[in-house]
Amino acid sequence: QGRLVESGGGLVQAGDSLRLSCAVSGRTFSGYPMGWFRQAPGKEREFVGAIRWSGGTTYYADLVKGRFTISRDNTKNTVYLQMNSLKPEDTAVYYCAAGPHGDLQTPDYAYWGQGTQVTVSS
What we know:
The chain is mainly beta. It has strands spanning about 5, 10-15, 20-25, 35-40, 45-50, 60, 70-75, 80-85, 90-100, 110, 115-120. It is about 0% helix and about 55% strand.
């Protein structure tokens, strides 16, 4: 069984940066893309971006393109979400996920982390 653990969330001010980490243990997901999603109170879980372990191809939602960067460290089995120029509307619980059942942007993945809270104050 695979396990995903996010870390790095916190309370920051608008314009600040944060880097989230997603550590993978229990198995490898080298054949699967890793996704990042977020969910704000009262809203549906939405796609932030994704990365393929092999080759490192990345995909981003339009809302974060140019501000967020996804990377991975294959030696540490860890995926990162670097978030710059944060806005109050970025406030949400951020989740990493592995093993999409369909397209990358749909939150239908086999494995999910527990989430980490990101709060951006204005």
